[in-house]
Design a protein that fits this description.
By secondary structure, the protein is α+β, with helices and mostly antiparallel strands. The chain is built from 21 helices and 35 strands. InterPro entries: Bact_Sigma-Reg, GAF, GAF-like_dom_sf, HATPase_C_sf, HATPase_dom, PAS, PAS-like_dom_sf, PAS_fold. Keywords: Hydrolase.
Length: 891
C-alpha cells in the first residue's frame, strides 16, 4: 500500500546513480547517516541541496532508530532533476503522524510528525510507502535552476576617466578537461600565479582555486566548470601561498571527438572589465551604443538596469555598485543592506574605496537629525569636510561629495546605495533623482537575491548546528570539548578563536584554548592574547565587540616598525620578543566576545576574530550565538562530569587500603579493576592489615550495586573489620557485629558477600589461616602437586538476616601452597551464554604451580580478560597469598 503525502501521483524518476547504507538502531547512527548523505551528495556535485538533504535525513533516521527502535536503510538516488532519498525502517505497524496544513499551523509545537513537517517545507515532493516488512519515507530535492551565464556592461567613459593598469594586462588561458584537471596553461597564467606549466598540468583546478567558505554557499568551482557559460570571481593560490583574486569567464566546449572541456579566461579581479560581457545597444538607442557616458539619462541608465542579475547576491551587489559609479562618473560607490530590524545597515559591496575593510561593517540607519541624517531619504552632500561624520563609511577615504539613496521594497527600507567623488560639489539633486530611479528598479532584484541567500544561509546554519550539537554531545571530556568549540568555528565562522573559562565568580577568566586557521600563527596569537587583559565575563546575551586584541596588534606593529628604523627603546626589547607582524595583522580586524552561560552562570567566553579590519556579518554572529549556547552547556556538562569523576575516584581510593603491609614469610599480591566509567564507585573491596604482633587480617568483599549507597556499606565494612579485629574479636564475632551494623542502615543497607580471615606465619615456614566465607566465592587452595580444592565452606551472606551463626575454618598453607581469593567479577565473566565459573577458575589455577603470588594473580587476570572480547562489566578483585619454599643453603 502506498500513502503519498502530496496530491501529485508518485512517478519514479530516471535513476543515474545510487548509494545505499544500513544503520543500526543506536543513537550514533543518526550522525553517521548524515555524514553518509553529505559525502554522497557532495561527491555527485549536489552542493546546492546537500544542507536540506542532511536535515531531512537526520529527522527521518531519528524517527527510525530512536522512535521506531529499528535499523534504518538509507538509499540515495541521483536523478536528472536532483536527488531522491529513501529512509526505511522495519516497523511497518507504526503509524506515520499526518496532519493537514491547517492543523499543523494551529499546533506548531506538537511533538509528533515534525520530520514530515520539514519534508513538506523543504522537499520538492515527498511521500510514504508501506510493505509487509518495511515503512519507507522518501523525499525528492530538485536542483535549483541556474542561469547558464551572466552579462555585464558599463557606459562609455572619457579617456582620462579610464582605470590605470599597473602593468600590461595579462589574460591567463587555462583549459580544464572533463575530469576537472588542467590540460593547458599559458605564459600569462605562469606570470600571474607563478606556477610553471609542467607543475600544474594534470592537477585539479580545485587544488588551486580558493572558493568562499561560508555556511550556505551553494555554488562551487566544480559546479561552475559544468555550466555552459559562467562569469564570476574567485581566487587562485600562487606559489607563495597568497590567494590572488581573479575574475573568470568560463566557456564549455567539445572537441572533434565529442569530449567536453572548459576554457577559462582569468584576469586580475580589478581588471574584470576586460572579460565582462558587454551589452550591445539596441537599434533604437542610436546604433552601436556610442552614446555619451554623461549628459544622457538613457544609455547609462538602460545599461545599468538592463543586465540580468547574476546567480549570487555578492555578484549582483558588486556589479550594481560598479555600474552606479560609472553611471554618475564617481570615484567610489557602495551598497548597504538593512538588518532584519532595519535599525542598522550592513556594508555588502563597495568599489573605489581604499580597501575591503568595510565589508559587513554596520552603521545606524538614523545617523543624525534632519533630512540628511537618515538613510530612509535621498541625500546629497556637496562637501563632507563641512559636515564631518555625515557618512561614517567614507571617513578617512578622501571622498568629499556623495549622493546617497535608499533601496525600498513596498515602502520598507531594504538598503542604501551611494556614489562618492573626491572633488567637492560634484552631485546635485538631478544626480540623486537619476540614482534613485535606478535604485527603485534594482531594489526588488536585490531583495529577492538577499532573501534567497538568507534562506540558503539559514538552512546551512541549521545543518551546521545539528552536526555541532552531535559532536558536543559526544564527549564529556573538558579538553576535547574546548577543542571542538574552536574547531567548529575556525574557519567556518571566524579566522581565529580563543576560549576563556571561568572557574567561579571570584576567579579571573583563564585563556584555555586558541586556534587559528593558519597553524603557524597559533603560538604568536596565544602570546599576544596572554599579554591582553581578558574580556569581562558579562552574562548579557549576544556578541559584543572587544577592541583589546586589535589595539595590542596595532601597538605591536608600531613598535616593530620603530625598531626596524632603530628608534625602539630598551624597555620594549627587555620585555622579550613581541608578536610578529603576521600575528598582529591576523588579529587586526573585528573581534567579538560571546558569553558562555550555563545554568544561569557565566562559565567562560567564546572569542572570535577576523584579520585585516574585516567585520562579521550579522547572520554569522547569530549562528555563533546559537553555537555558544550549545557549547556552554556541553562545557558545563564536562565540568560537572569531571568533578563527579574526581569525587568518585577519590572516594574509591578511600575505600581501598593505601598500601599493603609486608607479611613475613608470605607473598601477597592484589589486583583491583573497577568496571565503571570513572564516575561510578565500585562495590568490590579488599584489605590486608596487621591485627597484633604476628597476626594479620585480610578481607575481600563485594557489596550489591554501585554508587554512593554501595560506597557507604563498603566504607562501613572495611573500617569496622579493622576496628573489631584489633579489639580482639574472632572472625565469626567480627562478621556478626558487622552484619548488625549493616542492618542498622535501614533502607540504605546493601547485601554484602565477604571472605574474612586471619593469618599467622609459622616458624616452620608454613602459614595458619582462620577464614569465614559469608556468601562469597570460595577461596581456592593450590597445592604443590597441582591439585586445587576449596579452602572453606559457604555460609550466609551479610545484610539479610538478624541472627547469624557463623563459624571459622582453619587452613594451613604449606611451603609452595597458594590461597586465591576473588570476587564474582572473575567467576561470572561471560561471553554470550558461556561463563568462566568456579570450574574455569580452577582450571586456570592448576596451571600456576610454582609461580609467585604476583604471577598467579596476573595469570588469572589475563585469563579473565581473554575469556571474552567485550570489556568487563563488573568490578574484579584478586587476592593471592603464597607461602614460598625455603631457599636451599649454598654448599
Amino acid at each position: 500500500m502506498r500513502t503519498p503525502a502530496t496530491e501529485t501521483p508518485l512517478r519514479r524518476p530516471v535513476i543515474t546513480a545510487r548509494a545505499t547504507a544500513t544503520f543500526e538502531a543506536v543513537g550514533r547512527s543518526v550522525a553517521t547517516a548524515r555524514a553518509f548523505v553529505r559525502d554522497t551528495l557532495q561527491g555527485w556535485g549536489f552542493s546546492d541541496i546537500v544542507d536540506d538533504a542532511v536535515v531531512l535525513t537526520s529527522e527521518l533516521v531519528t524517527n527510525a532508530v530512536v522512535h521506531a527502535g529499528t535499523a534504518a536503510d538509507v538509499l540515495c538516488l541521483r536523478t536528472e532533476a536532483g536527488v531522491r532519498i529513501e529512509v526505511a525502517d522495519r516497523y511497518p505497524e507504526r503509524d506515520v503522524p499526518l496532519q493537514s496544513s491547517a492543523a499543523q499551523a494551529a499546533n506548531p509545537d506538537r511533538e509528533g510528525g515534525r520530520g514530515l513537517m520539514l519534508c513538506g517545507a523543504l522537499a520538492t515532493s515527498w511521500g510514504v510507502e508501506y510493505s509487509s516488512t518495511h515503512k519507507t519515507v522518501w523525499f525528492q530535492l530538485d536542483l535549483p535552476e541556474r542561469p547558464a551565464g551572466t552579462r555585464s556592461a558599463g557606459p562609455a567613459l572619457p579617456v582620462d576617466a579610464l582605470p590605470v593598469a599597473e602593468t600590461r594586462v595579462r589574460v591567463a588561458v587555462v583549459q580544464i578537461d572533463r575530469a576537472g584537471a588542467i590540460s593547458s596553461w599559458n605564459d600569462d597564467a605562469e606570470a600571474l600565479f607563478g606556477h610553471p606549466a609542467d607543475q600544474v598540468l594534470g592537477k585539479q583546478l580545485t587544488d588551486l582555486a580558493a572558493w568562499p567558505h561560508t555556511p550556505g554557499t551553494g555554488t562551487g568551482i566544480a559546479e561552475a566548470l559544468q555550466l555552459s557559460r559562467w562569469e564570476g570571481s574567485y581566487g587562485i593560490r600562487a606559489t607563495d601561498g597568497r590567494v590572488i583574486p581573479v575574475y573568470a569567464s568560463h566557456l564549455r566546449v567539445r572537441d572533434a571527438a565529442g569530449d567536453p572541456s572548459t576554457v577559462c579566461l582569468l584576469v586580475r579581479d580589478h581588471e574584470r572589465a576586460v572579460l565582462q560581457t558587454t551589452l550591445r545597444a539596441s537599434a533604437g538607442d542610436g546604433g552601436g551604443g556610442s552614446g555619451e557616458a554623461r549628459g544622457s539619462s538613457a544609455d547609462p541608465f538602460e545599461v545599468f538596469i538592463g543586465s540580468p542579475a547574476p546567480d549570487d547576491l555578492d555578484g549582483l551587489l558588486q556589479r550594481t555598485v560598479e555600474r552606479a559609479r560609472d553611471m554618475l562618473d564617481g570615484d567610489a560607490a557602495y551598497l548597504l543592506l538593512a538588518t532584519d530590524d532595519e535599525t542598522e545597515l550592513e556594508v555588502r559591496a563597495s568599489t573605489g574605496l581604499p580597501s575591503a575593510r568595510q565589508r559587513f561593517a554596520r552603521v545606524p540607519v538614523e545617523a543624525g537629525t534632519g533630512r540628511y541624517g537618515s538613510a530612509r531619504m535621498p541625500a546629497v552632500h556637496e562637501d563632507l569636510t563641512v559636515v564631518p561624520g555625515a557618512v561614517p563609511l567614507l571617513a578617512g577615504t578622501g571622498m568629499r561629495s556623495v549622493v546617497n539613496v535608499p533601496l525600498k521594497v513596498e515602502g520598507r527600507l531594504t538598503g542604501s546605495l551611494g556614489v562618492a567623488a573626491e572633488a567637492a560639489g560634484r552631485y546635485t539633486n538631478e544626480e540623486a533623482l537619476r540614482l534613485q530611479f535606478a535604485a527603485d528598479r534594482i531594489a526588488l532584484a536585490v531583495e529577492r537575491a538577499r532573501l534567497t541567500e538568507l534562506e540558503r544561509l539559514r538552512r546551512g546554519s541549521l545543518s551546521f548546528l545539528v552536526e555541532a550539537s552531535d559532536l558536543l554531545a559526544g564527549t564529556l571530556d573538558r579538553d576535547q570539548t574546548l577543542a571542538l568549540m574552536a574547531q567548529m568555528t575556525v574557519p567556518t565562522l571566524a579566522t581565529w578563536c580563543a576560549v576563556y573559562t571561568v572557574a567561579d565568580q571570584a576567579s579571573e577568566p583563564e585563556l584555555s584554548y586558541v586556534l587559528h586557521e593558519d597553524e603557524d600563527r597559533i603560538d604568536g596569537l596565544k602570546t599576544l592574547l596572554g599579554k591582553v587583559p581578558p574580556p569581562e565575563p558579562v552574562p548579557t546575551p549576544g556578541a559584543r565587540v572587544w577592541s583589546a586584541p586589535s589595539d595590542a596588534a596595532h601597538s605591536a606593529a608600531l613598535r616593530s616598525s620603530l625598531r626596524s628604523l632603530g628608534l625602539g627603546d630598551a624597555s620594549h626589547s627587555a620585555s622579550g620578543p613581541g608578536p610578529s607582524l603576521a600575528t598582529a595583522s591576523a588579529v587586526a580586524g573585528e573581534t567579538v566576545v560571546l558569553p558562555l552561560v550555563a545554568r544561569n552562570r557565566v562559565i567562560g567566553m567564546l572569542t572570535l576574530g577576523k584579520p585585516s579590519d574585516e567585520h562579521f556579518r550579522q547572520e554569522i554572529l547569530e549562528l555563533a550565538e546559537d553555537l555558544s549556547r550549545r557549547a556552554a552547556l556541553a562545557l558545563d556538562n564536562s565540568r560537572l562530569y569531571s568533578e563527579r569523576t574526581a569525587i568518585s575516584q577519590s572516594l574509591q581510593r578511600s575505600l581501598l587500603p593505601p598500601e599493603l603491609p609486608e607479611v613475613p614469610g608470605v607473598e601477597v599480591e592484589v589486583i583491583y579493576r573497577a568496571a565503571g566509567e570513572g564516575n561510578e564507585v565500585g562495590g568490590d573491596f579488599y584489605d590486608l592489615f596487621p591485627i597484633r604482633d604476628g597476626a594479620y587480617g585480610f578481607a575481600i568483599g563485594d557489596v550489591c550495586g554501585t554508587g554512593p549507597e554501595a560506597a557507604a556499606v563498603t566504607g562501613l565494612a572495611r573500617h569496622a573489620l579493622r576496628l573489631l579485629a584489633r579489639e580482639g574479636f574472632g572472625g565469626p564475632a567480627v562478621l556478626e557485629r558487622l552484619n548488625a551494623a549493616i542492618l542498622d542502615e535501614g533502607a540504605r543497607s546493601r547485601f554484602l558477600t565477604l571472605l574474612y580471615g586471619e593469618l599467622w606465619p609459622q616458624d616452620d615456614g608454613s602459614a595458619l589461616l582462620k577464614v569465614v566465607c559469608a556468601g562469597h566465592p570460595l577461596p581456592l587452595r593450590l597445592r604443590q602437586d597441582g591439585s586445587v580444592e576449596p579452602a572453606a565452606e559457604p555460609q550466609p551472606l551479610l545484610g539479610v538476616m538478624d541472627d547469624l551463626e557463623l563459624y571459622e575454618e582453619t587452613v594451613t598453607l604449606d611451603p609452595g601452597d597458594v590461597l586465591l581469593c576473588v570476587t564474582d567479577g572473575v567467576t561470572e565473566r561471560r561471553e554470550g551464554p558461556r561463563m568462566l565459573g568456579d570450574d574455569g577458575l580452577t582450571d586456570v589455577l592448576t596451571t600456576c604451580t610454582g609461580l609467585t603470588a604476583g604471577a598467579v594473580a596476573s595469570r588469572v587476570l589475563r585469563a579473565v580478560e581473554r575469556f571474552a572480547a567485550e570489556p568487563a562489566s563488573d568490578d574484579m578483585a584478586i587476592l593471592a597469598m603464597r607461602v614460598p619454599e625455603p631457599q636451599a643453603e649454598p654448599a
